[in-house]
Design goal:
Blueprint: E1 15-19, E2 23-30, E3 43-49, H1 51-62, E4 68-74, H2 76-88, E5 92-97, E6 104-110, E7 116-120, H3 128-145, E8 151-155, H4 164-171, E9 179-183, H5 189-192, E10 199-203, H6 204-215, H7 224-234, E11 239-243, E12 249-253, E13 258-263, H8 267-271, H9 286-301, H10 304-318, H11 330-339, E14 341-346
Parallel strand pairs: 1-4, 1-8, 2-6, 4-5, 8-9, 9-10, 10-11
Antiparallel strand pairs: 2-3, 6-7, 11-12, 12-13, 13-14
Helix pairs in contact: 1-9, 3-4, 6-7, 9-10, 10-11
Length: 347
């Protein structure tokens, strides 16, 4: 892929997803994976990877594809393969091209245990010119979107050379009424300090890591309301959405003394699965699916609680699709949505 300047006259659609660290995804399937031994896969698939890329795949599944633009950084043969695949599926892309090759990632799925192991290749460092150009394109998209840009999502890690300050600079052009969802936790302090984050979506472990980096001491990971209060003491963020895989999820609002707990049923109970056999699942991309459906619903309904519930239901349903990330059965999602128990509490 030959690096070139991206035209910045592009106008984003209603939702702009910034996915700075895409990946060419390979998934290997084993009947029984044994650590430290030679393992022969029974099957192999390749697909689109990266949190932002999974986000837009989920919007396609949810019927919002024509409302979404993806801003990403691509390079090399893997970047070309990703661009071709995304364009063939009809996504609106704004690409910043790099001399560095887009990373590859490998997922290992074990049939016997149902476990997933993810191996992530390091990304190469972008040079200063590439980073500056990425910032310029991002700011232009936000300015060009103006009042028609309803939602913005920043998803995942950054390639080396890109920093939280890069995104804080991009956010300087954020339209006032756009909802900004942050689905990242590394090097996000300067982004959070802008005061422009409407929703911070993070898992429980990431939240603890983020707060501990400021307090310098360990937290009680089970006291989620206390940790949410500590977060709001540090940052002016509108809403804090906390996930924990298949366990309870939480939603806290900065301006209220109440929060919501979401109790998620097991997929086996929803599907009436044979409990003598482990249910085969692939949770890769589930969190990205949650973010996508959450933001799509929120820009439409402005109901943050119901929107998060929709996102959690879609995330659970996506775990049943083994061969692709961020894909889910709408009917399974609807079953999950009806079965998630939501409770309001004070903190």
């Amino acid at each position: 892929m030959t690096p070139k300047r991206t035209m910045t006259e592009e106008k984003p659609r209603a939702i702009l997803c910034i996915g700075p660290n895409p990946a060419f995804q390979t998934t290997l399937y084993f009947e029984h994976f044994k650590v430290g031994q030679v393992n022969r896969a029974r099957n192999k698939t390749t697909s689109i990877g990266g949190k932002g890329q999974n986000f837009v795949l989920a919007t396609e599944q949810y019927g919002f594809q024509d409302k979404v633009t993806l801003l990403q950084i691509l390079g090399g043969s893997t970047g070309q393969a990703l661009e071709t695949s995304l364009r063939e599926r009809g996504f609106h892309l704004v690409n910043v091209y790099s001399e560095k090759t887009t990373r590859s990632c490998t997922t290992v799925l074990d049939d016997e245990s149902g476990n997933m192991t993810e191996m992530i290749e390091p990304s190469e460092r972008l040079n200063d010119d590439e980073v500056q150009h990425f910032e310029e394109v991002g700011k232009c998209l936000l300015r060009n979107g103006s009042d028609e840009l309803l939602g913005i999502a920043l998803c995942g890690t950054y390639p080396p050379g890109v920093t939280g300050e890069s995104f804080a600079n991009i956010l300087s052009a954020k339209p006032k009424e756009s909802i900004f969802l942050l689905d990242a936790y590394k090097d996000v302090t300067k982004i959070l300090d802008t005061g422009k984050v409407d929703v911070m979506k993070i898992n429980r472990e990431e939240l603890n890591t983020l707060i501990e980096s400021h307090h310098g001491s360990s937290l009680d990971s089970n006291d989620v309301p206390s940790n949410a209060r500590k977060f709001f003491e540090l940052y002016q963020v509108g809403n804090l959405a906390i996930t924990d895989g298949p366990e309870k999820a939480y939603l806290f609002s900065n301006n209220h003394r109440e929060y919501h707990t979401f109790e998620i049923p097991t997929l086996s109970s929803i599907l009436s699965n044979d409990l003598t056999k482990p249910l085969q699942i692939n949770p890769l991309g589930a969190g990205d699916t949650c973010s996508a459906v959450f933001l799509c619903e929120y820009t439409k309904s402005k109901d943050v609680v119901a929107s998060f519930q929709h996102g959690l239901a879609a995330a659970s349903a996506s775990c049943l699709v083994l061969h692709q990330t961020a894909q889910f059965d709408i009917e399974v999602m609807k079953l999950m949505l009806k079965s998630i128990k939501v409770q309001k509490s004070s903190f």
